């Protein structure tokens, strides 16, 4: 297993927000964590990278390649986060500073992870942009000069640039229109096959679960109520909450919208 969470709980001052969650993600798989807003999905994902606010307490074990992440110091965690464990957030625009170019964002990211040579940093950055179908010309532009789909692709390029073992994708299509969202996910699936990374995919969209995930867990009010293989849960859900979510979901079509069979530029 690339990641194992054992009896993980997250508590605020007066209440327990996530309660005794256990799950495991295999190397190279696409694992979906599904649930409505407020179910605790994002908090659970942030706990993996020690990214929760200081007023929240985490208990249990989070084993990443057999190492308990909760036992690491902030400095040790920074050496893992970004290089071996990477994030793509729902608010991808908030990850970029408006007055810094895309080049500056990439350069700072690589310097923080020990790439000393400036020419190597530039070439790695351009290669990363090209890997997600973006032109080298975007390298010198500012974030506001890119479309939402292009900027999301930049965030994917940066997240995968150092070949992490686990990518955590938190509602990555929520801020995009359906066409751009499908293209981004097709791109992510393509890059996953090329790099072999595992993906923890946090979503409320069952259509994306059906198309991309291999296994999944369903969260309700901070607890996992059902988990297992995708087809078993989609075709034969056991928990009443899972049945309600699936029944309320839009039609679970397997195909993409017309014209999106191939990943194209946005």
From TrEMBL:
Transmembrane segments: none annotated. It holds the Pfam family ABC_tran. Residues 3-246 form the ABC transporter domain. Keywords: ATP-binding, Cell inner membrane, Cell membrane, Membrane, Nucleotide-binding, Translocase, Transport. InterPro entries: AAA+_ATPase, ABC_Ni/Peptide_Import, ABC_transporter-like_ATP-bd, ABC_transporter-like_CS, P-loop_NTPase. One of its GO terms (molecular function) is ATP hydrolysis activity. It is found in: Cell membrane. It is a peripheral membrane protein. GO terms for cellular component: plasma membrane. Belongs to the ABC transporter superfamily. This is Peptide/nickel transport system ATP-binding protein. It comes from Litchfieldia salsa.
């Amino acid at each position: 297993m690339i990641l194992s969470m054992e009896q993980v709980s997250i508590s605020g001052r007066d209440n327990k927000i996530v309660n005794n969650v256990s799950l495991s993600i295999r190397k190279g798989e696409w694992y979906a964590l599904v649930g409505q807003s407020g179910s605790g999905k994002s908090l659970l994902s942030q706990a993996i990278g020690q990214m929760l606010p200081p007023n929240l307490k985490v208990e249990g074990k989070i084993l990443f390649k057999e190492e308990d992440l909760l036992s690491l110091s902030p400095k040790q965690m920074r050496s893992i986060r970004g290089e071996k464990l990477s994030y793509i957030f729902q608010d991808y625009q908030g990850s970029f500073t408006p007055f810094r170019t895309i080049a500056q964002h990439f350069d700072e990211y690589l310097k923080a992870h020990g790439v000393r040579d400036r020419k190597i940093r530039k070439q790695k950055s351009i290669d990363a942009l090209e890997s997600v179908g973006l032109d080298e010309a975007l390298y010198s532009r500012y974030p506001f000069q890119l479309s939402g789909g292009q900027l999301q692709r930049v965030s994917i390029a940066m997240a995968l640039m150092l070949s992490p073992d686990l990518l955590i994708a938190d509602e990555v299509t929520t801020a995009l229109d359906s066409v751009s969202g499908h293209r981004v996910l097709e791109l992510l699936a393509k890059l996953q096959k090329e790099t072999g990374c595992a993906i923890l995919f946090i979503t409320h969209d069952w259509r994306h679960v059906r198309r991309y995930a291999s296994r999944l867990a369903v969260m309700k009010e901070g607890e996992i109520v059902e988990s297992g293989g995708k087809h078993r849960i989609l075709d034969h859900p056991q928990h009443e909450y899972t049945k309600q979510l699936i029944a309320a979901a839009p039609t679970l079509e397997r195909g993409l919208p017309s014209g999106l069979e191939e990943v194209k530029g946005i």
